[in-house]
Sequence to fold (103 residues):
Amino acid sequence: MDQSTVEKIQQSESFQTLVAQRSGLAMKLTIVMLVIYFGFIMLIAFNPAFFKTIVMGSNITIGVPMGVGIILAAFVLTGLYVRKANSDFDELTDKIKAEHHLS
Fold:
């Protein structure tokens, strides 16, 4: 692909929309994950006694399900991004390809 085609694509409204939507979603999901993770770390730092709370049996504390929850949250947020990418972002990409006669 020659440089002029690349520049035309980068300047197109569809490409600008794609970049803005993708970047915006990525930023929002990143912030959510950082809040979850650092909230957990801050809880450990400032209220360690909270993690002595037994939730199952005689030795499983609240930290174990919270840790699993953080991992699951990462999977859910990744799934949300993939769902959006496979629908809206792919449609925008196809539109850009069609506008510029790309395969």
